[in-house]
Known about the structure:
The complex is a heterodimer. Chain A is of the alpha/beta class. Chain A has 2 domains: 1-118, Nucleotidyltransferase, domain 5; 131-196, Nucleotidyltransferase, domain 5. Chain A is 25% helix and 33% strand. Chain A contains 4 helices and 11 strands. A 4-stranded mixed sheet of chain A has the order 2-1-3-7. The model of chain A has no long low-confidence stretch (mean pLDDT 89). The two termini of chain B are 28 Å apart. Chain B has helices at 17-42, 62-76, 79-90, 119-130; strands spanning 96-104, 109-116, 135-145, 154-162. The A-B interface holds A 33, 35, 53-55, 57-58, 77, 79-84, 90, 92, 94, 98-100, 103, 113-118, 121, 124-125, 128-129, 131, 133, 135, 150, 153 and B 1-10, 119, 139, 141-145.
Amino acid sequence: xxxxxxxxxxxxxxxxGADPLVDPPHAGAMLDILVSDAxxxxxILERPAGLASAAELDLYAADRFxxxxxxxxxxxxxxxxxxxxxxxxxxxxxxxxxxxxxxxxAEAKGWRLRSxxxxxVREYNRHCRELGSDAAFCVASSESTTIGLISDGSWRxxxxxxxxxxxxxxxxxxxxxxxxxxxxxxxxxxPTVVGSLRAAAR
Amino acid sequence: MKPLAVDFAxxxxxxxxxxxxxxxxxxxxxxxVVVSSAVWLLVPPAEAGHMAANAAPRLPAADEAQAAxxxxxxxxxxxxxxxxxxxxxxxxxxDAVLLRVExxxxxxxxxxxxxxxDAAAVQGLPSRLRTLPGVAEATLLGQEAQDAGAAWPVxxxxxxxxxxxx
Lengths: 202, 166
């Protein structure tokens, strides 16, 4: 857990465990919780016709989560970014122990929780304004390689792969395979790679 | 591409919107006073102006002009009148209450969230809000049911697109 020079501290939760939850420097100090993509599930939701309410969207997302990953959605917290007029939405899920229990423990210690975000979401929001309408955004970290595919300004696919340092295949091969599975043209994709292992993607 | 609106932090209501907006308006006024004072002190008096008459006037760079425009837009944003109009649209004893207001001045968007007695009340909100002066479009972003025994069991969020000032 690092306090840096800013007023907001950051707590990282990785595959190897979480940073120790220290006491805040003062009551109400701001805290961001960053969850490794190795612990997060991502998928793309096709916008269904006739969705009437946010509750229906939650049920639909949970149903697709169980179908895609075979896990009980009750143990996870699900989020969807339901952009108006988009045909596909990005959805992700974080184990409830991180999104609820750790968050509650932090607030009990006196932290004021500002955000709980997966790594890919954090990095995408930092770089999204630089991306074109056909883009492959990749977060290459020491724990995972997450590739999100955007075609014609719409989410088409997202996969979490092993870290590039240990992967048997190159970044180019991973991207080509993901594009084929998502049904998008590989040649038009403009790749943007961030993260500590971005050099391995070249 | 737009940022993803994905955050797993528990959402908390904003208990006193008007109080916080008044702080914001106060802060903006104080900033305006400080900037005006600094300009007054730093700009040379008119009598010395002829000394620099031969120098080419320095035009503001594009980023400086944009920053100034953004600051002016933020200072000119009609916070209190907008909030009054919103509170008037919801009204005391109505079928919905306003909990939170956030403005994106740069994109001329106001996001609001609140609670309503039922889903039908939420569905009627966009058309009601479109009648407010200055509102070009009102879009329902989402709604969710909470505790059925609560006085306001349906939580909702809306986005208002403001008309461009003529």
